[in-house]
From TrEMBL:
UniProt xrefs under InterPro entries: Rossmann-like_a/b/a_fold (IPR014729), Universal_stress_UspA (IPR006015), UspA (IPR006016)
Provenance organism: Streptomyces resistomycificus
Family: Belongs to the universal stress protein A family.
Signal sequence bounds: none
Ranges of residues in domain UspA: 1-136, 149-288
Pfam families the UniProt entry points to: Usp
Protein name: Universal stress protein
Domain of life: Bacteria
SUPFAM superfamilies: Adenine nucleotide alpha hydrolases-like
Amino acid sequence: MTRPITAGVDGSEESLAALAWAAREAVRRRLALRVVHAWRFQPYEVIEAADPEVQAGWAKEAVGEAARTVTERHPELEVSTDVVAGGSVDALVAAAAEAEMLVLGSRGHGPVVGFLVGSVGQQVIVEAPRPVVLVRSGDKASGEAAGREIVVGQQGDPEDSAEVLRFAFETAAARGASVRAVRAWTLPPVFAYSPGSLRLLDEAGGLEPYEKKALSAALEPWRNRFPDVPVTEHVEMGSAGQVLLSVAGAAQLMVVGRRAHRTAVGARIGSVAHGVLHHAGCPVAVVPHA
């Protein structure tokens, strides 16, 4: 089944930037675009219309207008709209399940860490079964110019990062861009070494050569599948979030993996995804691990 690219819109500047990004990506990948707005009835005290049908009509009109701006720019693009009754998180997670990717707006940089993506965006990222792309309000098509890379974080074994690398290479192939694959490493505590791991490190010639071999092994199937995509292998000692952000200046898109962490106060995204989402200047794609 061919899935569309879905953009969640709410009329804000951020969501319209996300819609424009999603439309360009849909054209590149030759996919349809679905525009979704989650709508919930607001009582008279909140909004000046007590009739649910009137409020629903406003929502449909706003989504239709947003879709028309896209079709004017991309007349060849197949665009559909959907106004979904209910909470934003549930509606967007359900939309993501039926999409190639879900694209949302992000409020951009600010002084208070933890409030840049927004509570709805964070919950959707945690729950969505498909990649979620966050786009900032100031994002322009010029940021996708030639020479700017798709930066992707790789960690663990090849199977651990397969979906993340797949997304990065598919995006690069659609854009004619290059991929910079980043693997960060740190010195593990002495008690973490086992006889087996020590043997592997010894065979590899040390920690850094071992990490380089691990990155090359993870990239090999994707290099073979996408031979026309130039690849730069980047292995650096440091925290994954810091290393990724150090190369973000040349990125047109940052791709990171996500494992949801369940806590007493709810699900949280990992520290790497959290840091990149809050501090990278380019759009960020968060891809669930298989």
